[in-house]
Design a protein that fits this description.
Layout lengths: L2 H8 L3 E5 L4 H12 L3 E6 L8 H4 L8 E4 L5 H11 L3 E4 L6 H6 L1 H20 L6 E5 L25 H21 L9 E5 L15 H10 L8
Parallel strand pairs: 1-2, 1-4, 2-3, 4-5, 5-6
Helix pairs in contact: 4-6, 6-7
Length: about 230
C-alpha cells in the first residue's frame, strides 16, 4: 500500500461515512482523518461498552458528526445537502445474525430501507463522485458448498440478516444500472458494493463475535461457547 499516493488522493476530500461509531466505521474514519480527509460521520451513538469510537476520541477527529438514524430520510437528505460529500462509504447496518431473529423488521428496515435512503441522497446530490456500499458475504444463498462463494453466485439468505444483505445488493444493482450509469436521469459516479466477511481487529467489543466472546469468557474464567 502506497501511503503517499493514498494521502495525495484523499487529502482534503470530503468523505461521508455512515456507521462511523461502529467497529469498522470508526477504524475507517480514523484512517481517513490521518490521510487529511474532511470526514463527516452519520450513525447512531455507539452501543458497545467499551467503545472504540470513544477510546480513540473520534468525535475530535471528524469534521462533522450527526448521530441520527439512517431510516430518517429527511435528516439524511439534509446532511448530504449541507456537507456535500465527494466520497460516500455506507457501513451503517444491523450487523448481527442472531439479532435479526429477534428483530427481523428492524433488520430489514435498516439494511434495506436505510440503504435506499443513502442511495436516494446520493442520487439527488451532485457533489458525490464515488460511493462504496458495504454489504456482507452472507448475501449469497447458502447451498452448503464447501468452497467459497463467487460474485456471480445466486443471492439469497435463509435468516433475516442474510436476506436483508442479499436484498441490499439487488437494490444497489438497480440504482447503479438505472441511475449511476445514466447521465440523463442520475449522476454518473464510481459505484461499487463490497461484500465484507468477518473482520478481526482491535476495538471490537460487539456481542456474538467469536474473538471478543472468547476474550470475555477467558478473562472472566468462563467456558468459551463456540456456535
Amino acid at each position: 500500500m502506497d501511503i503517499k499516493k493514498l494521502r495525495n488522493f484523499y487529502k482534503n476530500k470530503r468523505v461521508l461515512i455512515t456507521g462511523h461509531t461502529g467497529f469498522k466505521g470508526s477504524w475507517l474514519a480514523l484512517w481517513l482523518s490521518k490521510l487529511d480527509s474532511e470526514v463527516c460521520g452519520v450513525a447512531l451513538p455507539p452501543n458497545a461498552n467499551p467503545s472504540h469510537y470513544k477510546l480513540i476520541k473520534l468525535k475530535e477527529l471528524v469534521s462533522d458528526e450527526y448521530l441520527i438514524d439512517i431510516r430518517d430520510y429527511n435528516k439524511i437528505k439534509k446532511v448530504f445537502k449541507k456537507f456535500k460529500p465527494e466520497i460516500v462509504f455506507h457501513l451503517a447496518a444491523q450487523p448481527l445474525v442472531r439479532d435479526s431473529y429477534l428483530k427481523p423488521k428492524d433488520t430489514f428496515d435498516i439494511n434495506i430501507g436505510g440503504t435506499v435512503n443513502i442511495l436516494e441522497a446520493i442520487r439527488h446530490n451532485n457533489s458525490v463522485r464515488v460511493s462504496v456500499i458495504i454489504t456482507s458475504d452472507k448475501c449469497y444463498e447458502n447451498i452448503g458448498q464447501i468452497w467459497g462463494y463467487k460474485e456471480e453466485d445466486r443471492l439469497g439468505g435463509f435468516d433475516p440478516y442474510s436476506a436483508s444483505k442479499g436484498a441490499a445488493e439487488i437494490v444497489c444493482n438497480a440504482y447503479m444500472k438505472s441511475f449511476f450509469r445514466n447521465r440523463k436521469i442520475g449522476p454518473l459516479i464510481g459505484f461499487a458494493t463490497a461484500r465484507a466477511g468477518n473482520v478481526i481487529g482491535g476495538g471490537d467489543w460487539a456481542k456474538y463475535r467469536l474473538v471478543p466472546d472468547c476474550v470475555r469468557a477467558l478473562s472472566s474464567n468462563r467456558p468459551v461457547v463456540i456456535r
